[in-house]
Amino acid sequence: xxxxxxxxxxxxxxxxxxxxxxxxxxxxxxxxxxxxxxxxxxxxxxxxxxxxxxxxxxxxxxxxxxxxxxxxxxxxxxxxxxxxxxxxxxxxxxxxxxxxxxxxxxxxxxxxxxxxxxxxxxxxxxxxxx
Length: 130
Prior knowledge:
Blueprint: H1 7-15, H2 20-30, H3 32-48, E1 53-55, H4 62-73, H5 75-85, E2 88-92, E3 96-100, H6 108-114, H7 116-121
Antiparallel strand pairs: 1-3, 2-3
Helix pairs in contact: 2-3, 2-5, 3-4
Pfam family, one: KH_NucS_shadow
């Protein structure tokens, strides 16, 4: 299961749309490691004002790696995080998370990160089973 959904939120979802803030709070509470990584790269990006910010340290366990996978593989979760933090997220190797300003999405650095070449160049033997 990706999220630990409170009963009240589930009941509201059954009745109609879910508020983005409440959904993001559910993500934060359910996936604390993923939240820590995404909020960190978003804060680094906003503080540094650069083209992107990334986190390259592999998670300490498979449980944390699973949180990143669940957060970034779900369109709804990833979209909620992107809207909340005002960034565009990119993901490589089951652990490398990058945040880009939305305006950078058409740019060279973003395309280099999300390209097949970028993925191949970011491989190493120790990451083959991640």
